[in-house]
Fold each of these.
Amino acid sequence: MKTSLARCLASPVNTPLVFVVRVLLLPFYLAYLLVVSARNALYDSGLLAPVHVGVPVVSVGNLTVGGTGKTPLVIALAQQALGQGRKVAIVARAYGAVADAEGRTDEVALMAQRVPGAQVVMAPDKLMGARRAAASGADLILVDDGFQHRRLHRDLDIVVVNARAPMSNGYVLPLGGLREPPSGLGRADAVVLTHFDGLDDSALETVRSGLLAWKRELPIAWGRHVPLGVRPVAGGALAPLDSLRGQEVYLFCGLAEPEGFRRTVEALGAHVQGLCAFPDHHAFDAASLAEVRSLARTARLLCTEKDAAKVAAIPGSGDILCLVIELVIEGSLPALPVVAASSSAR
């Protein structure tokens, strides 16, 4: 219910119910906007200064709430840096339900699994986590979801934008999906556009022009989610993508942007019988799985790799598959920093 209301408010469609709810939330919206704008002004003016940790820091964040593809980009950057011989640490805050025996959440567990050569630091505070990473000997720190965490100095700020809803409905929380006003894009060093599949050239140019309106010289790359294969949720070898072609599958996931999952699977030639979308970071349990099985009937169950560890912990989940993807960057991003900058606050 909470998720449905949030999506409804973020929609540009102004139904009578949405209008009434927006009016009721207007005081909270104004208060949030005032606090965020004042805080940004303090950092922009230099009255507040970010803290350097002595190690290059790259932030991967966004302007909107969820669903852009930050975690796959962090994984891709970590793999790139490890390939260059860097000592990489990923700093992430623990959102959502515990996914594995080590107490890690879904996204943290996925990053640890996909980038085993990197240290993954879970911390409620990004600055605290970065200090721990620096003390452990890392020479590059990647911060997952760090764009609004201005207390920590960053040498490179990459913002991930969903091309289908680049600025949500234009309102900050709680009337829309923006974490801060679009002018915050002026702090970005680069943008990666995701979820652009199916959009024509005209729509993509509109999105690109809209982003450049906030910062004229802004590098923009494209992040394409490329499926690699399918595997059992408990792990194992990847089966080829062709194994889905012509198969009846029923999808379920705990994502902020579930329709992207559907589009990807349909493009692989599978017959999607339905999609059961749970809230982002959903804590899957036996009841969740029973609900999905009742909806799927005879179709094969397929979830995302992000949800796989939580689903695998449920007895009787051995027949469920997950789709494994990676983010491929098209275009160029600024080089990963080697020496921590001592420039002014972002």
Note: The chain has two domains: 57-218, 228-325.
Amino acid sequence: MQLRLETMDARLAGASQASAQTRMQLVLEPVDVWLFRDGRPFDAGSDHHARCLFPPYPSVIQGAIRSHELVLRGVNLRDPAAVAAAVGTAEEYGCLRLCGPFLARSDAGVLTRYFPVPADAVVGQDGRAEMLSLRQGQEGVVSSIGERLPRLFFNPGEAGKPGRGRWVAENDLLALLAGNTVRALPDRCLFEYEERLGIGREDSIRSSKSELLYEAQYVRPARDVGLWLEMQGYSKWPREGIMRIGAEGHGAFFRTVAPRPWPGLDLSGPLPPRFKLYFAAPAYFSEGWQPESWAFAFAGSVTLEAVALSGYETIGGFDWAAGRQKASRRFVPAGSVYYFRSDSAVRLQPSLVNQAVTQWGGEIGFGRVIAAEWRG
């Protein structure tokens, strides 16, 4: 199975070979199933169940991209100095810049990206998603965040459920952020999980180990569904090929696709007096759900009016070069929405890497936001 996608023309492909700074957009599709584990340590004997996360975090994809770059360059993987010179280290990424990965589906050659339903929306029994009503806060409302935000969310009509596990196409996301009602898709329309049993192995004697049975969760994307990402910094990638990705070294077909603009307001220009940021990817802030000051993100003064988010995500991983677990951090999950007000024209700080509103990981795709105007 291969995604039927539009490809870059020869001129654009040639330019990507000529310059390491040219942006390249790719779609990855599975050879079979994929396994993207969450941030918890796992090996046979320490836990019996490996949970799969899909789509994977940007930190997972950057590892796969950097590993394939080493293969393309023919770098000696047993030479740490050569590896670091070619692609950097576990948290020093060199020239690599990423956006994604995001779910993508091809329909008759037209590629559509899918994003999580915003945290400030609810989904009814009919699968329709609508925004919660944003109103001025009321006296007597008790909050656990330690401070009072000026506005609160209220259900506009029939009771619905939060949209976790639901997805909207990018055009529908923009319509939803503007206050319209759209259709949200459940996971099963885009991918399904499969549970498989395994047993620990003793490689030295080519035999299984006693009492080391475990269960792993794999993901099988639906037909014509894959992962979209944008890459900048590596110039020698072919227009298509096969690479290893995720746990157990499962395969992915990759191919370049025609460039697509980032949805929402232009992040390089002034933002409206009232705007909201939808986090398409998880973001890290020094104070948990917010930074100590928003000055790191905005050139100009802003007031945070309201926040819609659902819990947090702990993201870590394993540093294969150092042979140890990476530090775990708590992230604001994808789908979170932050409402801002400003009395003067503001814009994102030009120093933000990848225009990513995050205090860690912006180089590899964390903190990517979609901006929209809000009224009220």
Note: The longest helix spans residues 58-73.
Amino acid sequence: MPLLDEIIGGAVDDEMPLSVLLRKCLLLAYELKNEKLKAWTENELNGYADADALPDYRKIKVTAVGTFAGPFGNLVNNQPLAASVLPEDFRHWAESAVLMQPVVAYDVGRDAEGRPNNGKFQWPADLVALFADKFLQGWNLVRAHQVIPGSVFVSLLDTVRTRILQLALELKKETGDRAKELSEIPPRRIDQSVVTNIFGGNIVIAGHAENFAQIGAISIQEGNFDQLRNALKEIGVEAAAIDNLRKALREDAKADEAKPTLGQRTMGWLKDSASYASKEGLKVGIEIAKKFATKWVLQHLGIDPT
């Protein structure tokens, strides 16, 4: 199995560029006919379109710093910005970030002393203007950015390479001593190996989510329950649970002068893990199902989920 051996060798050897290793992994995904591996590899190569589909290793903690202009034209640079100053909906700008770009974008290199270079994400100008006078009395915030430690990028690249290695070694083990072909490995075993080694066992938990790559891009028009129903079916929510949701939405609307609203019954449905139980099992993990379902229900109600 030359391809599998090439992947193992490339994952161990840092000299093989990660983009090349991922392309070999994409070839493997096609050979295995595994849509989950294909989706993950393409996302790592091309970037993620939806933050809801991001793996945990692409969600990071950050700090924020800013430049302030004060009396007599004085400037203060790199002043730490306290998240507590910001309203709750904006605090993530001083606390967390998501890494959406292709993985090669985070190969930032090292400085002359061998330390990984740091990165930064600039705050939008409108955000700076909105909170310009909220941090330091008598001083105005004129620029701000999130500080991304270089170690975060090193960790991201190493995590992707290690997960590929773990999968390849697991598949190698599955071929046994007689070196049987990859096509002889049962699809269920391949799927399990991908879930465990690539997704960490907590993203996709049931087989045959062929359209997993498209789930994060689903959007629901306000008031369109058929779209909501179809979206929930995509992640494996059973028909009875969807009917219960429709009843909850109707009851909440009756209680609020027939206006669609996020009432107690609908919120109860979203919080009830049992509502997602399916005879065939969910196509995504419980927490991911809740996140997508909440997003789609809010869209159905005309509420901005962001």
Note: Residues 270 and 290 are 7 Å apart (CA to CA).
Amino acid sequence: MRRSRAPITTTARTGATALALLLAASGCSLVGGDDDSSSSASADRVVLVTHDSFVLPEELEKKFEVESGLDLVVRSSGDAGSLTNKLVLTKDDPTGDVAFGVDNTFASRALDEGVFAPVDVTLPAGAEKFALPAGTTDGADLVPIDNGNVCVNVDTTWFADKGLTPPTSLDDLVDPAYRDLMVTPGATTSSPGLAFLLATIAKYGDGWQDWWTKLMANGAEITAGWSDAYEVDFTQGGGDGDRPIVVSYDSSPAFTIADDGTSTTTALLDTCFTQVEYAGVLAGASNTRGAQELVQFLLAPEVQAALPESMYVFPVAQGTPLPADWASYAVQPTAPLSVPAADITAHREDWLREWSDVTSR
């Protein structure tokens, strides 16, 4: 769901171009770079198609290979939106056996297009609450693997050094006091960007376009993806960024720990929208047995325990131990903003067009 690097930082003026490419690709987000699209047919391997941010410790990948007797081949396909779009475009000749990384903002698109097949796995305790609503899958299955919340993050150290009060809400972000201080990944090119758009729709209803108009007039910057927003433009992202407000994740403050053991950032928990990442067996997979085994392996206790530090997300398995810093700084919202899955399915493309229009003016 995250950490997918886009090569070029964009501004709001690129929104119309991004949307044109988006619609030309017949989906809700841009197709990522080309990967090896040769046949995955082999009884000796299983091919995982995923987003650029998929990372597991090498020892876990080796563990799967030893236990299954299969070689694990990983092919990346951009951010979650790019991944979904590529899965749809290749559904009649899939480039792998398993897909991981389609999230709840894009799941209905993949399912409606018949990308996934049924899967028979055992969910760990707690995972069922992250499953898609009943009736969504129409015979196919997407299995919840991890979750997290997209939230506005603030560099509290920057505001303290300037003697300024940091924002605490979405309403604050359109206040002239915060002009030219915010950066967000775009909704048409980034899954966290889309999640943030959905958060504002949940918050403001029919008034969300007016809020975005005010936000853009207040100097907000839009980038192609999360990595450019956080790692390049955000003041605590490790680069030379000059924007102390960024759209990131509820787990992000656990990775900005100062020498004194406190975090230099905070997530605004009233701005959050929940993302869930799924795995599924691809319809037409060459190695369905291996695909089933891999999906089940992603739910194994050792894999679930590795997710926080490997991919900065929360496991779906109840009782999975978390890193020490997460207890203090990776705080999840108790009442995140939400949009019903049916509404996302019905209105996603229209919302993206309208968002692009607003942010391109």
Note: The mean pLDDT is 88.
